[in-house]
Each structure stands twice: as C-alpha cells, then as structure tokens.
Amino acid sequence: MKEAGVRPNAITVTSILSACSQLAALEKGKEIHRTVIDSEFETNEIMMGALLDMYAKCGAVDEALNVFNRLPDRDLVSWTSMITAYGSHGQALEALKLFGEMQQSNAKPDGVTLLAVLSACSHVGLVDEGCHYFNQMITNYGIKPRIEHYSCLIDLLGRAGRLNEAYEILQRTSEIREDVDLLSTLFSACHLHRDLDLGVKIARLLIEKNPDDHSTYIMLSNTYASVKKWDEVKKVRLKMKELGLRKNPGCSWIEINKKIHPFFVGDKSHPQSEMVCECLTFLASHMERDELLSN
C-alpha cells in the first residue's frame, strides 16, 4: 500500500492495529502509532480505542495508560480495555481502583467489564473481592452471569483451595453443572491442592462426557502421582495406551526484530531450529551446573 503511494485512512489503521493486537506484535503496533503521529493523521475514537486495545493486549500497560489518559471521552470499551490491561498483567489493585473510578463516572459496566474485573481478582487471588464483584454484578447491575464469569469464580475459589465451595456452586447452578470447561478448571484446582477424592469424582464426569480427551487422563495420572498412588498412575497410563490417546504438541511464539517466530513441541521445521536447540542445550547445562554449585 505504501509502495503504491496510497494514503491509509482511519479504517486501514484500525484494522492493522487490530491485527497487531491478535499477534501481540508490539513493535509493529508502535511503528503504526509513530506513523499516525508523524503524519499528523486525523484520529477518531475508534482508532484511539484500537490503539489502546493493541497496547493493552501486548502487555504495554504504561503506553496503554498514556493513550487512555489522552482520550477526550472515555466510553465503555476504553474503560474495559484499560481495566483488562491492568488485570491481565498483575496489577489487580490498579484495575479495581480504575473500576471504582468508572462506577463514579457516567459509564455503566457490562458483562465484559465485570469479566475483566473478575479476571483481575483471579490472577492475584483476591477471593473475597472477586466474590463481592460477582454478587454485585447480579444485584447492582442486573447482569446474568455467563459461563466466562462462572469460570473466573470457580478458578478463583479453586486456586484458594475452597474446592467444596466451588463444587457446590457448580452443582446448584443448572446451566453450568455439566460444563466441561468449568469442570476442567476445578479438576486442575483439585490437582493443585492434592484433593484426590473430589479430583477423581470430577475426572469420572469429564471422562464420561469426553472419553477421548487425553488431558483428563494426564491430569488424573498427575494427581495420583502427587499423592504417590503409583498403581493408579500405571492404570491410567495403560488406559491411555489402550485408547490410543496422546498429548497434542504445544505451540508458542516470540517476536524478534519485528518478525513473529512460531515454535511447536518436537517440530524442527524452523530454519534456525538447530541453532535454537544448541542454545537451549547450552543454557540447560549452565542451569544444571549452577544448581550443583548452589547445593
């Protein structure tokens, strides 16, 4: 587009910023921002919102706050984006403080905003605060909780070890009682806190609903292993083998010099995979050496 001499408009810039958000391509997003400033581009609320969203999703909280503070009028989307930026990057207290400011303004929070608040509480373990905002969502704002809200609540209670309380919420709420994702969230918490009895109960429910999901078997095996039930570990592993289940390879990516590099577990298709493996081996050997020296 640049080579053709075509000047981008607000729609073009907004679309590119959205793509940067999805890819977490911060440097490319900053480049677009600089272009907007240098070109004295005429901005609008939608473009500024996209810019705020890009910085927020890329983890550049300070840059997101700078954009937020320059907004002439803060709408529901901008408030929510900034709360999400704080909450997603370990600044839950700032997120809750900003939510308090939002409540004092003319903006009325919706389900997405409350989800950001609950997520912020979940990330740093603010259990009582999370329960308070969950109840406030229903009583003060008349918002019916969705699966995502319950997921935050179950995760929050689960991380805090309040497993029976989380399980009771699942059991008494008909629309979420058999939700696989919520059951999986609580199952992970059972593994974390080594609650074998409840963990096995939930694992059976998950296997009944999705017998081909390898992750349930792996988590169940790990839960048994955490309490040294080695015979049960063996049974679970044999069952996985009988069913032909195996774990799907994980994927990650990193941005270096404005280029996105994806990586898959066991994949060697990347042109620099040999060098990457050599570097990782080198780092691992140094970590082992340092551990031996420290002991």
UniProtKB/TrEMBL annotation:
The keyword Cell inner membrane does not apply. PROSITE patterns: PPR (PS51375), PROKAR_LIPOPROTEIN (PS51257). GO terms for molecular function: RNA binding. Gene3D superfamilies: Tetratricopeptide repeat domain. GO terms for biological process: plant organ development; RNA modification. Keywords: Repeat. PPR repeats lie at residues 75-109, 213-247. This is Pentatricopeptide repeat superfamily protein.
